[in-house]
Write a structure and sequence with these properties.
By secondary structure, this protein is α/β, with parallel strands linked by helices. It folds into two domains: 13-208, 2-enoyl-CoA Hydratase, Chain A, domain 1, CATH 3.90.226.10; 212-258. The chain has helices at 38-53, 76-79, 84-102, 119-126, 142-145, 151-161, 163-172, 178-183, 196-208, 212-225, 234-245, 248-258, and strands at 13-19, 22-28, 59-64, 69-71, 108-112, 115-117, 129-133, 137-139, 176-177, 189-191. The radius of gyration is 20 Å and the shape is globular. The termini are far apart. The relative contact order is 0.11.
């Protein structure tokens, strides 16, 4: 009886770290410049729901392992492995990761060093804030690969850089420096590589010390009104605002302000 050929094993993993209210999701596939495999995407989708429910977690950080790449794109070889239904399942699994990050209810930050290409741009756009080193490089090379960039990824790009820049990004498939990316508002903050870990660590720590309910409400309300006040769920917005007003953190924030001290927020 002929032995069955084992399924190929592809490199790459998701590594995590949770400390001081900050959860780090690390794309760890340096052999392929942190390209994302379907199994890595599945792992991320398994991790995020538990983090969303954990009151100790206030901030999600998404980054790539090492200094050469944030994410260089999807791992095409693993994505198309085994063909047929398996390839379709792999594509679905990969695509599920990006809305899972975007819909995470707490603030999210992409920390970007090196290559941020294709699916890497989509992952960065899935996050609320993007901090980049001066070595970062951005590109969506779809036009050089003969593929189309997904509509939801394109919408996120248009929301951030505008229609004209989005068309340039997609039509030219050129590479943009970190300075160019910041100029078009793709990057919120640009940091020298030698100072990156320290400055971004301080930035994340500062953010994690803000009132959790207020940050979650701000994120949700911005998303609601982004397409115009007429299309927003105003009842949901008011409910989020009321929850903040009735929270212990609101009382603590007022007291801390009057007592001229730092507030100790607890997320309720």
């Amino acid at each position: 009886m002929a032995s069955k050929t084992p399924a190929p094993v592809y490199p790459g993993r998701i590594t995590t770290q949770v400390a001081a209210g900050i959860a780090r999701l690390v794309i760890d596939n340096p052999a392929r410049h942190n390209a994302i495999t379907p199994d890595m995407a599945r792992a991320a989708c398994d991790i995020l729901p538990a983090w969303a429910k954990d009151p100790a977690i206030r901030l999600l950080v998404v980054t790539g392992a090492g200094e050469k790449a944030f994410v260089s794109g999807a791992d095409i070889e693993s994505l198309e492995a085994e063909g047929g239904n398996r390839a379709a399942d792999n594509s679905i699994a990969l695509m599920a990761m990006f809305p899972a990050v975007r819909d995470f209810p707490k603030p999210s930050i992409a920390l970007i060093k090196g290559y941020c290409f294709g699916a890497g741009v989509a992952l960065a756009l899935s996050c609320d804030l993007r901090l980049a080193s001066d070595t970062a490089m951005f590109s969506i090379p779809s036009a050089r690969l003969g593929v189309g960039y997904p509509a939801n990824f394109t919408r996120w790009l248009v929301e951030v850089v505008g229609v004209a820049r989005a068309k340039e990004f997609l039509l030219t498939a050129r590479r943009y420096t970190a300075v160019e990316a910041q100029a078009m508002d793709l990057v919120h903050k640009l940091v020298a590589l030698r100072e990156f870990d320290r400055e971004t660590g301080e930035y994340c720590m500062h953010l994690s010390q803000n009132a959790p309910l207020s940050m979650q409400a701000a994120k949700a309300i911005v998303n609601e009104v982004a397409n115009g006040i007429g299309s927003a769920d105003l009842a949901r917005c008011e409910a989020l605002i009321d929850a903040c007003a009735q929270s212990a953190d609101h009382t603590e924030g007022r007291r801390a302000f009057l007592e001229k001290r730092s507030a100790n927020f607890v997320g309720r």
